[in-house]
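Exercise 7b. C-alpha coordinates:
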Protein backbone atom coordinates (compact mmCIF):
# COMPACT_ATOMS: atom_id res chain seq x y z
CA UNK A 1 0.00 0.00 0.00
CA UNK A 2 1.30 3.47 -0.93
CA UNK A 3 2.21 5.41 2.20
CA UNK A 4 4.87 7.81 0.93
CA UNK A 5 5.11 11.01 2.88
CA UNK A 6 5.08 14.29 1.08
CA UNK A 7 8.06 16.03 2.56
CA UNK A 8 8.63 18.99 0.26
CA UNK A 9 8.26 22.34 1.95
CA UNK A 10 4.65 23.44 1.57
CA UNK A 11 3.97 25.99 -1.11
CA UNK A 12 1.52 28.80 -0.33
CA UNK A 13 -0.87 28.38 -3.20
CA UNK A 14 -3.99 28.97 -1.15
CA UNK A 15 -4.27 32.54 0.07
CA UNK A 16 -5.30 33.04 3.69
CA UNK A 17 -8.44 34.85 2.65
CA UNK A 18 -9.41 32.11 0.19
CA UNK A 19 -8.85 29.44 2.83
CA UNK A 20 -10.87 31.25 5.49
CA UNK A 21 -13.69 31.79 3.02
CA UNK A 22 -13.66 28.09 2.12
CA UNK A 23 -13.63 27.14 5.82
CA UNK A 24 -16.60 29.41 6.40
CA UNK A 25 -18.52 27.82 3.49
CA UNK A 26 -17.56 24.17 3.90
CA UNK A 27 -14.83 23.19 6.38
CA UNK A 28 -14.69 19.55 5.20
CA UNK A 29 -14.00 20.52 1.58
CA UNK A 30 -11.64 23.30 2.67
CA UNK A 31 -9.43 20.85 4.63
CA UNK A 32 -9.60 18.17 1.92
CA UNK A 33 -8.66 20.68 -0.80
CA UNK A 34 -5.81 22.00 1.32
CA UNK A 35 -4.39 18.48 1.83
CA UNK A 36 -4.81 17.64 -1.87
CA UNK A 37 -3.10 20.84 -2.88
CA UNK A 38 -0.20 20.93 -0.42
CA UNK A 39 0.24 17.31 0.70
CA UNK A 40 0.72 15.71 4.10
CA UNK A 41 1.83 18.96 5.75
CA UNK A 42 -0.15 21.96 4.59
CA UNK A 43 0.51 25.44 5.87
CA UNK A 44 -1.62 28.55 5.93
CA UNK A 45 -0.32 31.89 7.14
CA UNK A 46 -2.72 33.50 9.55
CA UNK A 47 -2.24 37.05 10.86
CA UNK A 48 -0.32 36.23 14.03
CA UNK A 49 0.45 32.54 13.70
CA UNK A 50 0.75 29.75 11.15
CA UNK A 51 -1.77 26.99 10.84
CA UNK A 52 -0.62 23.50 9.80
CA UNK A 53 -2.87 20.70 8.61
CA UNK A 54 -1.11 17.37 9.24
CA UNK A 55 -2.74 14.58 7.27
CA UNK A 56 -0.27 11.71 7.24
CA UNK A 57 -0.81 9.10 10.01
CA UNK A 58 2.82 9.29 11.11
CA UNK A 59 2.50 13.07 11.60
CA UNK A 60 -0.74 12.59 13.55
CA UNK A 61 1.18 10.13 15.75
CA UNK A 62 3.99 12.65 16.23
CA UNK A 63 1.55 15.22 17.63
CA UNK A 64 -0.65 12.91 19.70
CA UNK A 65 2.00 10.51 20.99
CA UNK A 66 5.69 10.99 20.21
CA UNK A 67 5.89 14.76 20.63
CA UNK A 68 2.75 15.21 22.74
CA UNK A 69 4.75 17.32 25.24
CA UNK A 70 5.23 19.98 22.57
CA UNK A 71 1.50 20.56 22.23
CA UNK A 72 -1.52 21.62 24.28
CA UNK A 73 -5.16 21.53 23.28
CA UNK A 74 -5.15 25.19 22.42
CA UNK A 75 -7.40 28.15 22.95
CA UNK A 76 -10.67 26.80 21.54
CA UNK A 77 -10.99 23.85 23.89
CA UNK A 78 -9.69 25.93 26.73
CA UNK A 79 -12.64 28.23 26.13
CA UNK A 80 -14.96 25.23 26.47
CA UNK A 81 -14.24 25.71 30.18
CA UNK A 82 -16.99 28.32 30.04
CA UNK A 83 -19.35 25.37 29.79
CA UNK A 84 -17.49 22.39 31.21
CA UNK A 85 -15.44 23.87 34.04
CA UNK A 86 -12.13 22.18 34.94
CA UNK A 87 -13.00 18.68 33.74
CA UNK A 88 -10.90 16.04 32.01
CA UNK A 89 -11.57 17.42 28.54
CA UNK A 90 -10.28 20.89 29.36
CA UNK A 91 -7.43 20.32 31.84
CA UNK A 92 -3.74 20.28 30.82
CA UNK A 93 -0.34 19.01 32.00
CA UNK A 94 0.06 17.56 35.50
CA UNK A 95 -3.53 18.43 36.41
CA UNK A 96 -4.77 16.38 33.44
CA UNK A 97 -2.44 13.48 34.24
CA UNK A 98 -3.64 13.32 37.85
CA UNK A 99 -7.31 13.47 36.81
CA UNK A 100 -6.81 10.87 34.09
CA UNK A 101 -5.06 8.45 36.50
CA UNK A 102 -7.88 8.78 38.99
CA UNK A 103 -10.68 8.41 36.43
CA UNK A 104 -9.21 5.74 34.14
CA UNK A 105 -10.11 2.66 36.27
CA UNK A 106 -13.78 3.69 36.28
CA UNK A 107 -13.72 3.52 32.44
CA UNK A 108 -11.95 0.19 32.10
CA UNK A 109 -13.37 -2.11 29.39
CA UNK A 110 -14.73 -4.56 32.00
CA UNK A 111 -16.39 -1.75 33.97
CA UNK A 112 -18.11 -0.56 30.81
CA UNK A 113 -19.62 -3.99 30.38
CA UNK A 114 -21.36 -3.56 33.73
CA UNK A 115 -23.42 -0.86 32.06
CA UNK A 116 -24.53 -3.23 29.30
CA UNK A 117 -27.80 -4.30 31.02
CA UNK A 118 -28.76 -0.60 31.31
CA UNK A 119 -28.01 -0.12 27.62
CA UNK A 120 -30.11 -3.17 26.71
CA UNK A 121 -33.06 -2.27 28.95
CA UNK A 122 -33.17 1.35 27.84
CA UNK A 123 -33.06 0.30 24.17
CA UNK A 124 -35.74 -2.33 24.72
CA UNK A 125 -38.04 0.22 26.44
CA UNK A 126 -37.44 2.71 23.68
CA UNK A 127 -38.12 0.48 20.68
CA UNK A 128 -41.13 -1.27 22.15
CA UNK A 129 -43.03 1.98 21.46
CA UNK A 130 -42.39 1.71 17.70
CA UNK A 131 -45.16 0.53 15.35
CA UNK A 132 -44.39 -1.55 12.31
CA UNK A 133 -44.38 0.48 9.10
CA UNK A 134 -44.10 3.85 10.82
CA UNK A 135 -41.53 6.52 10.09
CA UNK A 136 -38.90 6.92 12.79
CA UNK A 137 -36.53 9.85 12.98
CA UNK A 138 -33.31 8.10 13.99
CA UNK A 139 -31.51 11.38 14.76
CA UNK A 140 -34.03 12.27 17.49
CA UNK A 141 -34.49 8.69 18.66
CA UNK A 142 -30.78 8.00 19.08
CA UNK A 143 -30.26 11.36 20.83
CA UNK A 144 -32.98 10.57 23.40
CA UNK A 145 -31.85 6.96 23.81
CA UNK A 146 -28.16 7.75 24.38
CA UNK A 147 -29.10 10.55 26.78
CA UNK A 148 -31.21 8.11 28.81
CA UNK A 149 -28.37 5.58 28.81
CA UNK A 150 -25.87 8.26 29.86
CA UNK A 151 -28.13 9.45 32.71
CA UNK A 152 -28.68 5.92 34.02
CA UNK A 153 -25.04 4.87 33.65
CA UNK A 154 -23.38 8.03 34.97
CA UNK A 155 -25.98 9.15 37.57
CA UNK A 156 -28.13 6.08 38.24
CA UNK A 157 -31.47 7.63 37.25
CA UNK A 158 -33.24 9.62 34.55
CA UNK A 159 -35.98 11.50 36.45
CA UNK A 160 -39.08 12.81 34.69
CA UNK A 161 -38.39 15.93 32.65
CA UNK A 162 -34.61 15.73 33.00
CA UNK A 163 -34.06 14.26 29.53
CA UNK A 164 -35.94 17.19 27.94
CA UNK A 165 -34.15 19.79 30.07
CA UNK A 166 -30.69 18.41 29.32
CA UNK A 167 -31.45 18.00 25.66
CA UNK A 168 -32.88 21.57 25.31
CA UNK A 169 -29.93 23.09 27.15
CA UNK A 170 -27.48 21.10 25.07
CA UNK A 171 -29.06 22.22 21.80
CA UNK A 172 -28.73 25.86 22.89
CA UNK A 173 -25.13 25.42 24.06
CA UNK A 174 -24.05 23.65 20.88
CA UNK A 175 -25.76 26.33 18.76
CA UNK A 176 -24.13 29.15 20.69
CA UNK A 177 -20.79 27.42 21.30
CA UNK A 178 -19.07 29.69 18.73
CA UNK A 179 -19.62 32.46 21.30
CA UNK A 180 -17.51 30.49 23.72
CA UNK A 181 -14.75 30.60 21.08
CA UNK A 182 -14.63 34.39 21.16
CA UNK A 183 -12.31 35.51 23.94
CA UNK A 184 -14.86 37.62 25.81
CA UNK A 185 -14.84 38.35 29.52
CA UNK A 186 -17.43 36.35 31.50
CA UNK A 187 -19.44 39.54 32.09
CA UNK A 188 -19.82 40.18 28.34
CA UNK A 189 -20.82 36.58 27.75
CA UNK A 190 -23.69 37.00 30.15
CA UNK A 191 -25.19 39.47 27.65
CA UNK A 192 -26.34 36.42 25.69
CA UNK A 193 -29.18 35.34 27.96
CA UNK A 194 -30.09 32.01 26.34
CA UNK A 195 -26.48 30.79 26.56
CA UNK A 196 -26.33 31.83 30.19
CA UNK A 197 -29.70 30.23 30.97
CA UNK A 198 -28.85 26.95 29.22
CA UNK A 199 -25.54 26.77 31.08
CA UNK A 200 -27.22 27.50 34.42
CA UNK A 201 -29.97 24.97 33.75
CA UNK A 202 -27.50 22.23 32.86
CA UNK A 203 -25.52 23.00 36.00
CA UNK A 204 -28.66 22.89 38.11
CA UNK A 205 -29.78 19.55 36.64
CA UNK A 206 -26.29 18.09 37.14
CA UNK A 207 -26.30 19.24 40.76
CA UNK A 208 -29.76 17.74 41.35
CA UNK A 209 -28.68 14.45 39.76
CA UNK A 210 -25.59 14.37 41.95
CA UNK A 211 -27.74 14.87 45.08
CA UNK A 212 -30.23 12.21 43.95
CA UNK A 213 -31.24 9.72 46.69
CA UNK A 214 -29.02 6.67 46.67
CA UNK A 215 -31.02 3.97 44.90
CA UNK A 216 -29.29 0.66 44.21
CA UNK A 217 -28.73 1.83 40.64
CA UNK A 218 -27.32 5.17 41.80
CA UNK A 219 -24.78 3.46 44.04
CA UNK A 220 -23.34 1.70 41.00
CA UNK A 221 -23.45 4.81 38.82
CA UNK A 222 -20.18 6.18 37.57
CA UNK A 223 -20.21 9.54 39.35
CA UNK A 224 -21.07 7.93 42.68
CA UNK A 225 -18.16 5.52 42.30
CA UNK A 226 -15.97 8.58 41.74
CA UNK A 227 -17.43 10.39 44.77
CA UNK A 228 -16.92 7.31 46.91
CA UNK A 229 -13.41 6.38 45.74
CA UNK A 230 -11.98 9.88 45.51
CA UNK A 231 -13.50 11.70 48.47
CA UNK A 232 -10.14 13.29 49.32
CA UNK A 233 -8.93 13.86 45.79
CA UNK A 234 -11.83 15.63 44.09
CA UNK A 235 -13.67 18.65 45.42
CA UNK A 236 -17.45 18.86 44.89
CA UNK A 237 -16.76 21.38 42.14
CA UNK A 238 -14.47 18.95 40.32
CA UNK A 239 -16.97 16.08 40.60
CA UNK A 240 -19.55 18.45 39.14
CA UNK A 241 -17.20 19.30 36.23
CA UNK A 242 -16.48 15.61 35.54
CA UNK A 243 -20.16 14.72 35.66
CA UNK A 244 -21.02 17.51 33.23
CA UNK A 245 -18.15 16.51 30.93
CA UNK A 246 -19.25 12.86 30.79
CA UNK A 247 -22.82 13.89 30.14
CA UNK A 248 -21.95 16.28 27.31
CA UNK A 249 -19.01 14.42 25.76
CA UNK A 250 -20.65 11.05 26.27
CA UNK A 251 -24.06 11.16 24.71
CA UNK A 252 -24.14 13.44 21.68
CA UNK A 253 -21.13 11.83 19.95
CA UNK A 254 -22.57 8.34 20.41
CA UNK A 255 -26.04 9.48 19.30
CA UNK A 256 -24.55 10.89 16.09
CA UNK A 257 -22.54 7.73 15.52
CA UNK A 258 -25.72 5.63 15.83
CA UNK A 259 -27.77 7.95 13.60
CA UNK A 260 -25.04 7.70 10.94
CA UNK A 261 -24.95 3.88 11.35
CA UNK A 262 -28.70 3.69 10.66
CA UNK A 263 -28.38 6.00 7.68
CA UNK A 264 -25.66 3.74 6.24
CA UNK A 265 -27.49 0.48 7.04
CA UNK A 266 -30.82 1.73 5.68
CA UNK A 267 -29.14 2.60 2.38
CA UNK A 268 -27.10 -0.64 2.25
CA UNK A 269 -29.68 -3.44 2.58
CA UNK A 270 -27.07 -6.17 2.07
CA UNK A 271 -25.13 -4.89 5.10
CA UNK A 272 -28.41 -4.74 7.07
CA UNK A 273 -29.13 -8.42 6.23
CA UNK A 274 -25.60 -9.60 7.11
CA UNK A 275 -25.84 -7.75 10.42
CA UNK A 276 -29.24 -9.29 11.19
CA UNK A 277 -27.98 -12.79 10.32
CA UNK A 278 -25.06 -12.29 12.71
CA UNK A 279 -27.29 -10.98 15.49
CA UNK A 280 -29.69 -13.93 15.03
CA UNK A 281 -26.87 -16.46 15.21
CA UNK A 282 -25.00 -14.88 18.14
CA UNK A 283 -27.96 -13.74 20.27
CA UNK A 284 -30.90 -15.85 19.19
CA UNK A 285 -33.73 -14.54 21.34
CA UNK A 286 -31.81 -12.97 24.19
CA UNK A 287 -30.24 -9.60 25.02
CA UNK A 288 -26.47 -9.12 24.43
CA UNK A 289 -24.06 -10.20 27.19
CA UNK A 290 -20.52 -8.82 27.54
CA UNK A 291 -18.94 -11.74 25.63
CA UNK A 292 -21.35 -11.14 22.73
CA UNK A 293 -19.97 -7.64 22.25
CA UNK A 294 -16.66 -9.23 21.17
CA UNK A 295 -18.39 -11.87 19.03
CA UNK A 296 -20.63 -9.50 17.07
CA UNK A 297 -17.77 -8.92 14.65
CA UNK A 298 -19.76 -7.70 11.64
CA UNK A 299 -21.78 -5.33 13.85
CA UNK A 300 -18.47 -3.97 15.19
CA UNK A 301 -17.19 -3.58 11.62
CA UNK A 302 -20.32 -1.56 10.74
CA UNK A 303 -19.60 0.75 13.69
CA UNK A 304 -15.92 1.06 12.72
CA UNK A 305 -16.70 1.76 9.08
CA UNK A 306 -19.26 4.40 10.06
CA UNK A 307 -16.70 6.01 12.38
CA UNK A 308 -14.28 6.05 9.44
CA UNK A 309 -16.70 7.66 7.01
CA UNK A 310 -18.67 9.86 9.40
CA UNK A 311 -16.36 10.56 12.37
CA UNK A 312 -18.38 12.55 14.96
CA UNK A 313 -15.05 14.19 15.98
CA UNK A 314 -14.01 15.30 12.49
CA UNK A 315 -10.95 17.44 13.36
CA UNK A 316 -8.74 18.05 16.39
CA UNK A 317 -6.62 21.09 17.11
CA UNK A 318 -3.46 21.58 19.12
CA UNK A 319 -1.22 24.55 19.82
CA UNK A 320 2.57 24.14 19.72
CA UNK A 321 4.08 25.31 23.00
CA UNK A 322 7.69 24.74 21.86
CA UNK A 323 9.44 25.04 18.50
CA UNK A 324 9.54 21.55 17.02
CA UNK A 325 9.96 19.65 13.78
CA UNK A 326 7.58 17.21 12.13
CA UNK A 327 8.36 15.46 8.84
CA UNK A 328 11.23 17.89 8.24
CA UNK A 329 8.91 20.88 8.70
CA UNK A 330 9.73 23.44 11.37
CA UNK A 331 6.66 24.15 13.51
CA UNK A 332 7.21 27.39 15.45
CA UNK A 333 5.88 27.68 19.01
CA UNK A 334 2.46 29.32 18.94
CA UNK A 335 1.41 27.61 15.68
CA UNK A 336 -1.94 25.90 15.44
CA UNK A 337 -1.88 22.31 14.27
CA UNK A 338 -4.98 20.57 12.89
CA UNK A 339 -5.40 16.84 12.38
CA UNK A 340 -8.60 15.90 10.62
CA UNK A 341 -10.19 12.49 10.92
CA UNK A 342 -12.33 13.48 7.96
CA UNK A 343 -9.30 14.04 5.71
CA UNK A 344 -7.13 11.12 6.84
CA UNK A 345 -9.99 8.57 7.03
CA UNK A 346 -10.82 9.32 3.36
CA UNK A 347 -7.24 9.02 2.05
CA UNK A 348 -7.12 6.50 -0.80
CA UNK A 349 -3.51 5.60 0.06
CA UNK A 350 -4.84 3.90 3.19
CA UNK A 351 -8.37 2.87 2.19
CA UNK A 352 -9.43 1.36 -1.14
CA UNK A 353 -12.51 3.12 -2.48
CA UNK A 354 -12.64 5.40 0.56
CA UNK A 355 -16.05 6.83 -0.33
CA UNK A 356 -17.68 3.40 -0.26
CA UNK A 357 -19.31 1.92 2.83
CA UNK A 358 -17.58 -1.46 3.13
CA UNK A 359 -17.71 -2.89 6.67
CA UNK A 360 -15.90 -6.01 5.45
CA UNK A 361 -12.72 -3.99 4.87
CA UNK A 362 -12.15 -4.30 8.64
CA UNK A 363 -11.76 -8.08 8.24
CA UNK A 364 -8.95 -7.70 5.69
CA UNK A 365 -6.63 -5.84 8.00
CA UNK A 366 -3.94 -8.53 7.96
CA UNK A 367 -3.71 -8.20 4.20
CA UNK A 368 -4.05 -4.41 3.97
CA UNK A 369 -2.95 -3.18 7.34
CA UNK A 370 -3.12 0.63 7.23
CA UNK A 371 -0.78 2.65 9.48
CA UNK A 372 -1.96 3.00 13.10
CA UNK A 373 -3.03 6.65 12.89
CA UNK A 374 -4.79 6.39 9.54
CA UNK A 375 -7.79 5.77 11.82
CA UNK A 376 -8.27 7.87 14.95
CA UNK A 377 -12.00 8.46 15.61
CA UNK A 378 -11.28 8.57 19.35
CA UNK A 379 -8.03 10.56 19.12
CA UNK A 380 -4.87 9.03 20.55
CA UNK A 381 -2.03 9.15 23.04
CA UNK A 382 -2.54 10.27 26.60
CA UNK A 383 -5.65 12.25 25.62
CA UNK A 384 -7.41 9.43 23.80
CA UNK A 385 -11.15 9.38 24.49
CA UNK A 386 -11.73 7.93 27.93
CA UNK A 387 -15.23 6.85 26.86
CA UNK A 388 -14.11 4.77 23.83
CA UNK A 389 -15.08 1.38 25.34
CA UNK A 390 -18.34 2.80 26.66
CA UNK A 391 -19.23 4.22 23.23
CA UNK A 392 -18.25 1.04 21.33
CA UNK A 393 -20.15 -1.21 23.76
CA UNK A 394 -23.19 1.05 23.57
CA UNK A 395 -23.17 1.35 19.77
CA UNK A 396 -22.82 -2.43 19.23
CA UNK A 397 -25.49 -3.23 21.86
CA UNK A 398 -28.00 -0.70 20.47
CA UNK A 399 -27.49 -1.84 16.85
CA UNK A 400 -27.87 -5.50 17.86
CA UNK A 401 -30.93 -4.88 20.07
CA UNK A 402 -32.71 -3.00 17.29
CA UNK A 403 -31.66 -5.31 14.42
CA UNK A 404 -32.94 -8.33 16.41
CA UNK A 405 -36.51 -7.11 16.08
CA UNK A 406 -36.62 -4.49 13.32
CA UNK A 407 -35.58 -3.99 9.72
CA UNK A 408 -34.69 -0.41 8.94
CA UNK A 409 -35.22 1.01 5.45
CA UNK A 410 -34.73 4.58 4.27
CA UNK A 411 -37.58 7.10 4.25
CA UNK A 412 -35.48 9.46 2.14
CA UNK A 413 -33.80 8.71 -1.17
CA UNK A 414 -30.28 9.82 -0.38
CA UNK A 415 -27.81 9.50 2.46
CA UNK A 416 -27.67 12.60 4.66
CA UNK A 417 -24.74 14.91 3.96
CA UNK A 418 -22.26 15.56 6.73
CA UNK A 419 -22.54 19.01 8.25
CA UNK A 420 -19.64 19.92 10.51
CA UNK A 421 -20.24 21.94 13.65
CA UNK A 422 -18.64 21.08 17.01
CA UNK A 423 -19.37 17.49 15.90
CA UNK A 424 -20.18 16.00 12.50
CA UNK A 425 -23.96 16.03 12.17
CA UNK A 426 -26.29 14.96 9.36
CA UNK A 427 -27.52 17.98 7.35
CA UNK A 428 -31.07 16.67 7.76
CA UNK A 429 -32.63 14.30 10.27
CA UNK A 430 -32.13 10.63 9.41
CA UNK A 431 -35.67 9.44 8.68
CA UNK A 432 -36.29 5.72 8.34
CA UNK A 433 -39.16 3.23 8.12
CA UNK A 434 -39.11 0.53 10.79
CA UNK A 435 -40.65 -2.88 10.00
CA UNK A 436 -41.09 -5.56 12.65
CA UNK A 437 -39.24 -8.75 11.74
CA UNK A 438 -41.10 -12.03 11.64
CA UNK A 439 -38.99 -13.75 14.33
C1 LIG B 1 -18.69 7.85 19.32
C2 LIG B 1 -18.48 8.39 20.47
C3 LIG B 1 -17.29 9.24 20.80
C4 LIG B 1 -16.36 9.84 19.98
C5 LIG B 1 -16.28 9.80 18.46
C6 LIG B 1 -15.43 10.53 20.85
C7 LIG B 1 -14.31 11.22 20.38
C8 LIG B 1 -13.36 11.76 21.22
C9 LIG B 1 -12.10 12.32 20.76
C10 LIG B 1 -11.63 12.41 19.30
C11 LIG B 1 -11.43 12.76 21.86
C12 LIG B 1 -10.04 13.39 21.87
C13 LIG B 1 -10.13 14.90 21.74
C14 LIG B 1 -8.73 15.53 21.66
O1 LIG B 1 -7.74 14.88 21.95
O2 LIG B 1 -8.68 16.70 21.31
C15 LIG B 1 -12.26 12.49 23.01
C16 LIG B 1 -11.93 12.81 24.32
C17 LIG B 1 -12.77 12.60 25.39
N1 LIG B 1 -13.98 11.93 25.39
FE1 LIG B 1 -14.85 11.06 23.80
N2 LIG B 1 -15.81 10.36 22.15
C18 LIG B 1 -16.94 9.57 22.18
C19 LIG B 1 -17.61 9.12 23.28
C20 LIG B 1 -17.33 9.48 24.58
C21 LIG B 1 -18.03 8.99 25.74
C22 LIG B 1 -19.15 7.94 25.73
C23 LIG B 1 -17.51 9.62 26.82
C24 LIG B 1 -17.98 9.36 28.21
C25 LIG B 1 -17.64 9.73 29.22
C26 LIG B 1 -16.45 10.51 26.34
C27 LIG B 1 -15.67 11.35 27.09
C28 LIG B 1 -14.50 11.95 26.67
C29 LIG B 1 -13.59 12.69 27.54
C30 LIG B 1 -13.79 12.94 29.03
C31 LIG B 1 -12.50 13.08 26.74
C32 LIG B 1 -11.25 13.84 27.19
C33 LIG B 1 -10.16 12.82 27.55
C34 LIG B 1 -8.86 13.44 27.98
O3 LIG B 1 -8.52 14.53 27.51
O4 LIG B 1 -8.16 12.81 28.78
N3 LIG B 1 -16.37 10.39 24.97
N4 LIG B 1 -13.42 11.87 22.60
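Sequence design result:
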Amino acid sequence: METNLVLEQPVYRTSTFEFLWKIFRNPLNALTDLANEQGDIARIKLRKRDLFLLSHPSFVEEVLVKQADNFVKGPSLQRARVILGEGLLTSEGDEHLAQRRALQPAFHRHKMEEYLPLMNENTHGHISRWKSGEQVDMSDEMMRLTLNIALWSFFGSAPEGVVERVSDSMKTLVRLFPLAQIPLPESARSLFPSFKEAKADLSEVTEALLRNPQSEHAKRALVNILKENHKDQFTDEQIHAHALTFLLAGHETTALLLAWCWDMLAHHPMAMSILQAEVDSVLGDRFPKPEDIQNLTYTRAVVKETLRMRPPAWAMGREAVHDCEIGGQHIPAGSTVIMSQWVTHHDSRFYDAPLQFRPERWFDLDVHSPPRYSYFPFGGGSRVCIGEHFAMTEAIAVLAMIARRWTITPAQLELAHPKPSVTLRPDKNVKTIVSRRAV
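Instructor comment: DSSP finds 20 helices and twelve strands in the chain. The first strand starts at residue 41 and ends at 45.
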